[in-house]
Every structure is written in structure tokens, then in C-alpha cells.
Amino acid sequence: MASKPSVAQFKAQAQVFKALAHPGRLLMVEELSRGERCVCELAALVGSEMPTVSRHLSQLKNAGIVDDDKRGAQVFYRLVTPCVMNFFQCVASVRRKQT
Amino acid sequence: MASKPSVAQFKAQAQVFKALAHPGRLLMVEELSRGERCVCELAALVGSEMPTVSRHLSQLKNAGIVDDDKRGAQVFYRLVTPCVMNFFQCVASVRRKQT
DNA sequence: GGATAACTTAGCCAATTGGCGAAGTCTGTC
DNA sequence: GACAGACTTCGCCAATTGGCTAAGTTATCC
Fold it and tell me: Is residue B20 within 8 Å of B87, Cβ to Cβ?
């Protein structure tokens, strides 16, 4: 049944790649690979306003890449699919081919 | 030196993900994983006009994912970094977490 | 050389994305 | 209850993306 993927499947897959197709979001994902972080920490990391970062995180969450956990007044995000970290090696080799 | 990736590196990485962040382009990449194809074959596959497909392919080429080879009047594209195919398994597991 | 076919490039338009500040929600403190 | 801090949601805007048709290139066939 995986032999002939439907258009809907490709659309859903593209959604995941789209979530990763932003330097700030990649930076956050890498940071989250080292442990959970609250929104304000990530905002300081990428140097954007909190509303902006919050929207980026909700995109990642919507794509199924991260999950959030509200504790008190803070919201902590964590990487829920660590296998995306494997992408970076391949992407690095892709970039090596760019002239 | 890979311990503290720069903003420029993340931008370049995001470019690769951006190239994959489109259902039609994913479909083409998967087709190319089974062998080289000319533009007209890919156009028929995704059901778009040839100029549209040509631009998608130049995006993939620009990202370093595919390469082209002009033979006569036709241009054949092939996957130059097959490791991107490994992404699909992980992405599938990501999607499984989407509610 | 003229006609056709395969692509690419250019120009145009609608739709999406990404950033911000303002406003709203929720939690803990006084 | 009033207030402050952490987030999220909401408008608004500029910039990018994605599709098409039209026009330009290059190779093949006659």
C-alpha cells in the first residue's frame, strides 16, 4: 500500500518539509534536540519577537515535529521525532554538491 | 567547526528543505529515485504544464538534489543525493503523530 | 531553410508566508 | 481584585511562491 502513494500523502509529507524550511525553525529544532526549552529561551536564541517564535513553534507542532507542555506560566517545547536530526547529515552532503 | 553552526549554514540547509516542501516536487523526487526521467515524463506524472515542471526541477537542481543531462532535444533529470529518500520513513513516522 | 517538438525564461497574477505591534488569555504574586 | 509575566491570537504589511500563457532557444525531421 506504500507502493503507490496518493497525492494527499505527498501533500502531508510536504507539510513536514515546509515546517523545516526556515532557518529560524531549524535553529530551534537543533536546540530542542539537546533538551526541552521554553518559548522565551528560544526567542532569545533566534533573536525574534515572542509572537513570531510562538507561531514558528505552532507550525512545528502542527507538523508533528515538536510537542508542548505547559507548566505554570511557561510553555516548554520538546522534539518529539528525533529522527529529523538525521536529515542534517544528508542535507550537508547535498550542500557539498552545490557549486 | 560543526559544533556551532552559523546562521548562514541554517539558511542554506533551509533551502534544501524548501526545495522538498512541495507535493509535486516530492512526487518527482520519488519518481527519479527509480531512474532518470525527461521533463515531459515528469510533467505528465504530476499533471502540470511543462514550464511549471521545469521551474520545479530547476529549484531541485539549485538545491543540489537533482542534476540534469541534455541529450538531443530532451533533458533528463536524475537524483544526485539518494539519501533524501531516507527522509520519507522519518516523515511518515512524524505524520503518524499528527492527530 | 521551414516546421515541429522539448525545454527554458520572462511576465503576470493570486495566494501564501513571515515579520511586527496590539490585544487577549492564563498563571502566579501581592 | 489588581498587577506583572509568559504566551497566543489577531490584524496588518512587504516579500516570496506557484501557477499559467507567451515568447525565446535548441535540436530533429523533411
Answer: yes
Segment B8-43, tens digit of pLDDT = 889 989 999 999 999 999 999 999 999 999 999 999
d(CA B19, CA B28): 12
Task: Return d(Cα A56, Cα A63) in angstroms, integer.
Answer: 11
More confident residue, B8 or A5: B8
Domain with A21, as residue range(s), is 8-96
Q: Collect all residues of chain B within an 8 Å Cβ-Cβ radius of residue A24.
A: 10
Q: State the nearest Cα–Cα gap between B90 and chain A, in angstroms.
A: 6
Query: Residue with C-alpha cell 526521467?
Result: B37
**Of the candidates A13, A63, A94, which has its C-beta nearest B81's C-beta?**
A94
User: What is the rounded distance in angstroms from the CA atom of residue B29 to the CA atom of residue B77?
Assistant: 10
The answer to whether the CB of B29 falls within 8 A of the CB of B20 is yes
User: How many Å apart are CA B29 and CA A29, to the nearest integer?
Assistant: 25
Interatomic CA distance for residues B3 and A7, integer angstroms? 38
Looking at the structure of chain A, the number of domains it has is 1
Asked whether residue B60 is domain-assigned, the answer is yes
DSSP secondary structure letters along A78-91: EES-GGGHHHHHHH
In a domain, A45, yes or no: yes
Which of the pair, B33 or B94, is modelled with greater confidence?
B33
**The three cell numbers locating residue A1:** 500500500
A57 touches strand D (CB under 7 A): yes
